[in-house]
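Milestone M4 deliverable, item 7.
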Amino acid sequence: MRGPSLHPGLCFLLSLSVVMDQKTTASCNCPQHAYCVNDTHCTCEHGYRSDFEQQFFTFPLTTCQDINECDPPISIYCGANAACKNVDGGFHCRCNPGYKLLSGDTQFQNSNENTCQKTTSSATTKDMKDVSRNPVLEPNELQHVVETFQSLLTNNTPLGTGEKGAVATWATEVLQTVESAALETALKSPEQKIQEIHNNNTVAIETRVVTDNCSEEGQIFSLNTHMNSVDIHCNDIVQGNIQGPTAIAFISYSSLGNIINATFFEEANERDRVYLNSEVVSAAIRPQRNLSLSKSVILSFQHVKTDTLSLPRKNMMSPFYLQRKPCRRKAFCVYWKSSGERGQWSRDGCFLMQVNESHTICSSTHLSSFAVLMAFSHQEEDYALDVITYVGLGLSLLCLLLAALTFLLCKAIQNTSTSIHLQLAICLFLAHLLFLTAIDRTEIKVLCAIIAGALHYLYLASFTWMLLEGLHLFLTARNLTVVNYSSVSRVMKKLMFPVGYGAPAIIVAISAASRPHLYGTCDRCWLNLDQGFIWSFLAPVCAIIC
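Output delivered:
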């Protein structure tokens, strides 16, 4: 009787284990481009990352997006005469037009495999073919567009007049002419999905033709020239119900920024040093010019000037050259705004997204010609505060000098207390004097760093001597209750100089050894606020006060 009664229970346990196993498997329902780990979590495949940039996830709505290794912050370097091309889940390197690998392959993985060699003109056309293009191509007409721009640049009669209005009109005509020529070239051969020319020092062009009316939902096209790039949604290229192919052109001008420079910025401030820190790029669409976009385009600019260019060559091997960053530097994303016969750089519809030492990323709600302006701003001067500072510190210097002379020359009052007061007066006097005379000596970066380090040390020493004075007063107050006070006083006399001058020296030495580039800013010889470096002064001061 017992055997049959166990059978239903055994079946129930087996079915329960099957259900639990199915539940565990179902809990690891990973999205596209992801796989299951330990039957509990999902992780994206190599070359993809999750929406929330988590390595492991269980949220069912998480998706894995392609990582663009060719754009900042990764920016794969493929070596000379080559460029990085992003693909789903990875990337590859290709030789620039006019070059080919010695092995005859069309792509490679990194700069170590780069054997790109210059080819003949007949081979150039062949190397410019992409797998998506028609195998039978006409000669590359983009070269004629480049020659057109070079002829316009050579015939620069308005530039010699120096009149900004004439220069702006000429620049507007050049930008529109090159855009139209590049787009017409692309639309003449719609079977050539991509056309590009990068091996020119003056201008680089890449065009793309869309004929399938955005077959993929949310498809984004990326065009790259001269380490600059633009990302635009396919729906903004095809422009709704327009019949026939649509083309987009992305153009980078290497030398145009020297002509329409930062002096054409409509918001230029005379107190700020503004300069153009990128190539001028243009993005345009045909057959109709799409001025308003459903989604913003993303533009990535490579800087033409780095922070190190402003330092003397003799300081190139110093840590200040290698690590110092400019302070209060503002980046502006601008576009060329043409109105009538005038033209100027404007920020309307252009927004800064990210900036680092080598690249700036902007977004724009319209298409035009774009650039990045940099400005080193300066703090507004408050003359009332300056007067208060100079008068107050001047009186303080006078009083400190008189106090130091009194403690030093009056033998009758000399003791441990006056000795501490003398050291405190000396430290404060030197600190205030250095502050008044050298706080704004920022012309020589190394000298400014030394001044900042000296101020750091002198003010720390002043607070340390204040601490010793408080400790001395405490011991004096306990004189009647402390049996061995005389021995304690002798120990303090021996230790007060090593502590008063040694402890600040140790703090400054550690700070200077770990962050030498953070001594001095662009307008003051004091501690930089970056990386919390100011706490190397505030932390000891707060500890002494508390």
